[in-house]
Design a protein that fits this description.
The structure holds 2 protein chains of 2 kinds. Chain A is an alpha/beta fold. Chain A is 57% helix and 8% strand. In chain A, helix 22 packs antiparallel against helix 23 and helix 25 runs parallel beside helix 30. In chain B, helix 7 packs across helix 18, helix 8 packs across helix 12 and helix 15 runs antiparallel to helix 18. The chains are: A alpha/beta, B alpha+beta.
Chain lengths: 815, 558
């Protein structure tokens, strides 16, 4: 059973002290006639006309329900949001989720299994039936023989090639012994094509890439699937990321990157890409890519005249020749399919309504309505509509028949979609899906960058995933612990402390007056003390306790002793070191830079010139912009696409032509990511500036007069008067700045979309790592341990700063 | 040539106007009159010269800096002049209305009179647009100017007065440069929020000034567009044939596509806004409005101009026409952004109300609790005081992540999830930083004051409330403003504790909105601007006290 944290004493205390406050916070307004079904993961306002039409039709058919849909990160829901909602007992009724995360949640019992509902409603025309779905899609939503979500859309990945370039380079291709009218079918063929087609500038920069393996949407997953790799053993207990087929696939990617000048050069090249009409594929900057079927939309819309072809993604030579391990393999080509699905969270209030909604939205009729609406909308705007693939087999067939394009290029692609759906594989359903995904991305990046060998990169990744698997499968060896015990212990300790304090006070020799004052003192600081015990010390102790447990919040905690800390020191230490190096970089460079900027502005503003208030306001303004808004704004300004980002637009038309330096990718490339974050922080230097200004105004004029009398130059005045007098503020700002830098989170969270950690972990911070473990991988115990490690490091650093302070901080003698 | 003279004259006029204003401020009336006359002369010249606005500049000719000159006739400038004067006087008078209200009336009279005159004769305002090429050579030229300027400064610095002047000028130059650098992001935010969506892509040139696609009114008797009230909500939509008749809602956007029964009693036909496009038909340029988009993708266009083709209906594909542009901000981005908010939020008003409630409660809570606690730590002697104070300071180092989850569990036990309580109740329990700040301030107040109060028989509470509180007003202002900003901008708290749209705050709604509309930067920026506006207003209103407060509150180093 779900044992939760139940500090009844606190409850009681709170109700007593806050009863009158709670009364003022009104209750929910009475719900209107139709009952509300709350949908998360897909917004009604996102411009998705098909979804809108489906929702409206549902509301028409079932007037007893009304849909309230919120995006919340659309499709790839913020895991923290969903988790807190389920734990807090206020989950949505329906949720739209990426299929590969379904088993993650299912394992923790966060979603309701749907088998009983499916069995019950088998006879109903709208109800989903397993046999109607493509097996890859259905399997991905199934975990341990039970179904947790109904798939909707599906996708496939295949090779796109630019025929115009192939035709122009036909002679060269023929010289290399290849056939220009037959796109590559095997790995060695595509490498050979890429060698012929790739061009460099004289200075070694990439001019045209034949094939960038991870440009588009392929990932190591696709190539490994082609090589018959599975990432997990069939029982799901062993991770096989470091197996030979995966290694071969990674080796293939590495070779492909080597042809285009290496991973880093490819990244730099990619960061200059533009979108829309200037799609690098349409411009011939990248001749071949493996991408998803959805990509056809953009191509059709922005480059209707482009001559391109599609083909199944090239496969290992042995598979194509049907020899060696692939001798008995029926399928020559393989693709990888993913997609979204609808699920009902545990504790949903409107299960029946939610199920009706899912039935409708995944039904053939519902999907057709959605697709037809989209098609009409596209037509109205004068665009060609390529229907997305559906997990429901018949829907796909009907739609593809109905909307088959007359254009041979698109027609070929659509036929390919249907062919490939039959040979598609999907990611293994496992509760470690997110960990596995992150580990495989990281391994690809590290191996292709040449930081470690492919074997080692995969072994590292496998170890991380295996730890996670073992943790859950080996859970039973650790004792379940009732969380009520520690909370009572905590309360007991607090009572004991209070008794000790009172008796210690009693023992003090005090007069009557002093005793009264003592009582008053405690009375005055009581608000803080209550807050301290309830909102700070209590939670701190609780988190210390959690750090010795394995706890996913949704299920009971298990006592694991020091395991979390030893994990942090051993196999996760590389990540932690990276994270701490990153924040030390941010602190070490960002804090001094911030101090200097703030001081420089304050010095300027301290001079007596007209219009000071105006200037002061302008400089202070940026620091009152909400953090989220300012991060979004900067991401918009620093968008690498020179057609959209202000800075790169300016760069592309000035610095690029003069000096031949391409605009940087800012947040998207490793060397620029952290400096960009620092620049972003400098923009908010205004808040520090106010403190400096206050400090400058506080320096007595007589000191400067004395200095001038002694014949000190302005610079000497600055170093000998201003700086020493300001040293307490410098100290204060440094300490606070460092504490802030070590806890960097908000900006990184927004920039990386809440999941990633920037290019090659360049933006991984301790709090981000902690957050990802706690809310992304359900490892609250480990996250608590990390929080404590972080706390101790902050305390240590601050202590060092305080120790060093007397050497340089000038303090006036207390008056 | 005409442009050069006209522009020069116009600039002279502006410079003279500025001098005139400055002289008025210094009560140097003679100089004011002379410069006023000069300004008039300048504008006369520029106004008399026949200049047409040059609105089309060939795009894509490298990076060049667009420059805009404003030319107006005399009446226009009079209105501007008087308006500026009025604003200055009003600004001066606001602080002490009783003494300084007289000039305001005078300027008001002048403004009204000039508006009347301008209304009679008409204002001819023209925006002249040109471009300064930013080729490498011109940058070299710019650099040379900088060098020359520095030489002049060096030369001027030889005399004391010159030194003062040049130092002042240099400070101004640095400040102006810095403020431009600091304002660019905000400027870009505003600019994006006023743009058409398709202009956010700068592939065909870079625009410093927003422009909008022209739309016009259209009533189609065959396809009536109605305004109706539905469940207390004002909606607009098309009437669908059938029995019973239905309406397909178009606006507000969040309800788009919903078909509801037609309520004939409560509806009326209105005109819809349709885009105006231009294109070529039978070899002639035309301007027309798009009256219908057909299912086959073609558009039916009703020609408005030229007269020879007027009222003719033609059918063209969208690719053969271009929208007609007009320069100016697209205000409708703002209303469009609120239209996308969930219905429960009453176009965002509910978010505003929630946030205001939170802000008021947290500010009250913080000010009350922190000042009491700070007073306790500053002035009352009690056992183990230093120990508790050290503990308080230590909590400032605590990463929020440590207490995140346990706090959540505590609030869940209290049943406070999906309410606003967890967001404001903790404010009544004194945060460390503010206590630290206020204690510093209390310590700087002379002890004698308090002793006197005690001697007069005040209790500790009375001393605190009557004597000490009024003394720390500046510091309290700072604390309140910081708390206000912190609460307004906090999104982590609402993210964790609130779920339903009825409980959301502005900052959280902003975050959600950014997630849902990441492909529409114009709406994103419009919403961000709206979310930040109240903070800006409060900052501007309280800025004087705020900065005074920081300066006085002992944060300045002691």
């Amino acid at each position: 059973m779900n044992a939760c944290f139940r500090p009844r004493i606190w409850n009681l205390l709170f109700c007593l002290s806050l009863g009158f406050f709670s009364a003022s916070a009104g209750a929910n307004p009475p719900s209107p006639e139709p009952q509300r079904i709350v949908v998360w993961g897909k917004a009604l306002s996102g411009g998705d006309r098909g979804f809108e039409a489906q929702v409206r039709e549902f509301e028409r058919r079932h007037p007893e329900y009304r849909i309230s849909a919120v995006g919340l990160g659309a499709g790839r829901m913020d895991p923290q949001k969903l988790m807190t909602a389920i734990v807090g007992g206020a989950p949505p009724d329906v949720i739209f989720q990426d299929r590969f995360t379904i088993s993650d949640w299912a394992q923790r019992g966060a979603f309701r299994p749907l088998d009983d509902l499916i069995a019950r409603d088998r006879a109903l025309p709208l109800s989903p039936r397993p046999e109607d779905y493509y097996p890859a899609a259905w399997q991905e939503a199934t975990y341990q023989e039970r179904l947790f979500a109904i798939p909707t859309a599906a996708d496939v990945r295949y090779l796109y090639f630019n025929e115009e370039v192939l035709r122009a380079e036909a002679e060269q291709i023929r010289t290399a012994g290849l056939n220009p009218s037959q796109p590559p079918q095997t790995w060695s063929e595509i490498l050979a094509f890429s060698r012929v087609l790739t061009r460099f500038h004289p200075d070694g920069r990439l001019k045209r890439a034949g094939f960038i393996p991870n440009f588009g949407d392929s990932w190591l997953y696709l190539y490994a699937f082609q090589n018959n790799a599975s990432f997990l053993s069939p029982d799901g207990r062993t991770c096989t990321l470091a197996s030979e087929p995966v290694r071969e696939a990674l080796e293939f990617m590495r070779q492909a990157y080597a042809i285009v000048g290496g991973y880093a050069e490819a990244q730099r090249f990619q960061s200059t890409f533009r979108s829309g009409e200037n799609d690098p594929f349409a411009l011939g900057q990248v001749v071949m890519k493996v991408d998803g079927d959805w990509n056809l939309h953009g191509l059709v819309r922005y480059n209707p005249k482009l001559q391109f072809g599609v083909a199944p993604a090239p496969v290992p030579d042995d598979r194509f020749m049907r020899r060696g391990r692939f001798a008995a393999e029926p399928d020559r080509f393989i693709t990888w399919s993913g997609g979204h699905s609808w699920a009902i969270p545990r504790g949903a209030r409107q299960v029946e309504g939610a199920w009706k909604f899912i039935q409708w939205i995944t039904s053939e009729q519902g999907r057709l309505l959605s697709l037809r609406t989209d098609a009409e909308d596209y037509r109205r705007r004068g665009r060609v509509f390529i229907p997305p693939l559906q997990a429901h087999r018949r829907t796909t067939e009907v739609v593809y028949q109905e909307m088959l394009s007359a254009d041979p290029r698109y027609r070929r692609a659509m036929e390919l979609h249907l062919e490939l759906m039959k040979v598609s594989r999907s990611r293994p359903p496992t509760f470690a899906g997110q960990v596995l995904w992150d580990a495989h991305v990281r391994a690809t990046e590290r191996a292709c960058l040449g930081i470690v060998s492919p074997e080692q990169a995969l072994a590292e990744g496998q170890q991380t995933v295996q730890r996670n698997l073992d943790e859950v499968f080996g859970m039973d060896q650790f004792p379940v612990i009732d969380l009520r015990v520690p909370s009572w212990l905590g309360v007991g300790a607090a009572v004991l402390g209070a008794i000790l304090l009172i008796s210690a006070t009693r023992r003090q020799r005090m007069g009557r007056l002093a005793r009264t004052e003592n009582r008053w003192g405690y009375l005055l600081i009581a608000p803080w003390m209550v807050g301290f015990f309830v909102f700070t010390l209590g939670p701190m102790a609780a988190s210390l306790f959690f750090s010795f447990t394995q706890y996913d919040v949704l299920n009971e905690a298990r006592w694991v002793g020091l395991k979390n800390f030893s994990d942090a020191a051993t196999y996760d230490s590389a990540n932690l070191i990276k994270a701490f190096t990153n924040v030390l970089y941010l602190g070490g460079i960002g804090v001094p830079l911030g101090l200097v900027t703030g001081l420089a502005i304050a010095m300027l503003l301290n001079s007596a010139v007209r219009g000071m208030r105006f200037y002061r306001t302008l400089f202070y303004l940026p620091s009152i912009v909400p953090g989220v808004a300012s991060t979004i704004l900067w991401m918009w300004i620093l968008s690498p696409d020179p057609n959209r980002g202000l800075v790169n637009a300016a760069w592309a038309s000035t610095i690029s032509p003069w000096f031949g330096v391409a605009p940087p990718g800012w947040f998207t490339v490793e060397p620029w990511a952290k400096p960009t974050l620092i620049v972003m922080g400098l923009w908010g230097a205004g808040s520090g500036m106010i403190l400096w200004l206050a400090g400058l105004k506080g320096i007595s004029k007589s000191l400067y007069e004395a200095a001038v009398t002694d014949g000190a130059s302005p610079w000497r005045q600055f170093t000998s008067v201003t700086l020493p007098m300001l040293s307490p503020i410098i100290f204060f700002n440094t300490v606070m700045g460092f504490i802030g830098a070590l806890q960097t989170f908000d900006q990184v969270y927004v920039i990386t979309g809440g999941s990633g950690s920037g290019p090659n972990d360049a933006l991984l911070t301790p709090v981000m790592h902690l957050f990802r473990n706690g809310f992304g991988y359900f490892r609250m115990g480990y996250a608590s341990a990390l929080a404590w490690v972080l706390f101790l490091i902050i305390v240590a650093l601050t202590w060092v700063q305080f120790k060093l302070a007397p050497r340089w901080v000038y303090t006036e003698v207390e008056k | 040539m005409i442009y050069a003279v006209g522009t020069l004259a116009a600039w002279l006029g502006i410079a003279a106007l500025l001098t005139a204003i400055a002289s008025c401020l210094r009560r140097n009336w003679r100089r004011a009159w002379v410069s006023g006359l000069l300004a008039g002369l300048g504008w006369m010249i520029s106004g008399l010269l026949p200049m047409t606005p040059e609105s089309r500049v060939a795009p894509g000719s490298g990076w060049s800096l667009p420059v805009v000159w404003l030319t107006m006739n005399v009446w226009g400038w009079m209105v501007a002049f008087c308006g500026v004067g009025l604003l200055i006087r009003l600004g001066q008078a606001l602080s002490s209305w009783r003494q300084r209200h007289r000039p305001v009336w005078g300027w008001l009279g002048c403004t009204l009179a000039s508006i009347a005159l301008a209304g009679h004769f008409g204002i001819e305002a023209n925006l002249l647009k040109g471009r300064i090429s930013a080729a490498p050579l011109s940058w070299l030229g710019g650099l040379m100017w900088v060098v020359v300027g520095m030489l002049i400064f060096a030369w001027a610095g030889r005399t004391p007065q010159g030194a003062r002047w040049s130092r002042g000028l240099a400070t101004h130059a640095a400040l102006v440069l810095g403020s431009i650098l600091f304002s660019i992001p905000l400027f870009w935010l505003l600019l994006t929020s006023f743009r058409e969506d398709r202009d956010t892509n700068m592939a065909d040139g870079f625009r410093w000034w927003p422009r909008v696609m022209v739309t016009t009114e259209h009533v189609d008797p065959k396809n009536p567009y109605l305004e109706m009230s539905y469940r207390g909500q004002r909606v607009e939509g098309f009437l669908l044939e059938g029995n019973p008749a239905q309406v397909r809602i178009e606006r507000p956007s969040i309800m788009r596509g919903l078909t509801v029964p037609h309520d004939a009693a409560n509806s009326r036909t209105i005109s819809q806004r349709v885009p105006v496009v231009t294109g070529e038909y039978e070899g002639q340029l035309f301007e027309g409005k798009v009256v219908r988009s057909r299912p086959d993708g073609l558009q039916e266009i009703l020609i408005l101009r030229p007269a020879s083709l007027a009222q003719k209906e033609i059918v063209l594909s969208p690719g053969d026409t271009q929208p007609v542009w007009r320069s100016g901000p697209k205000w409708s981005n703002y209303s469009a952004a609120t239209e996308y908010l969930p219905l429960e939020s009453e176009r965002g008003l509910l978010y505003l109300r929630n946030t205001l409630f939170l802000v008021v409660m947290t500010v009250i809570g913080t000010v009350l609790s922190c000042s009491i606690v700070a007073y306790g730590f500053a002035r009352v002697r009690f056992f183990a005081k230093n120990f508790w104070y050290a503990l308080l300071l230590a909590t400032m180092m605590l990463p929020g992540a440590v207490t995140l989850l346990p706090s959540f569990l505590i609030f869940r036990e209290l049943g406070w999830i999906d309410t606003l309580l967890p967001l404001w109740v903790p404010a009544f329990f004194a945060g460390a930083f503010n206590v630290f700040l206020l204690r510093q301030f209390f310590s700087s107040i002379p002890m004698e004051l308090e002793d006197a109060a005690r001697v007069d028989g005040c209790t500790i509470l009375q001393t605190f409330w009557r004597i000490m509180m009024p003394q720390i007003k500046p510091a309290l202002t700072v604390v309140s403003i910081w708390t206000f900003m912190g609460t307004w901008n906090n999104f982590m708290g609402p993210l964790i504790y609130t779920n339903s749209p009825e409980k959301m705050t502005v900052a959280y709604a902003l975050q959600l909105f950014l997630g849902d509309h990441s492909a529409e930067p114009t709406l994103m920026m419009a919403f961000a601007t709206m979310a930040m506006l109240p903070v800006l207003i409060v900052f501007f209103a309280a800025q004087k006290y705020f900065i005074e407060g920081v300066t006085l509150s002992g944060l300045g180093g002691r």
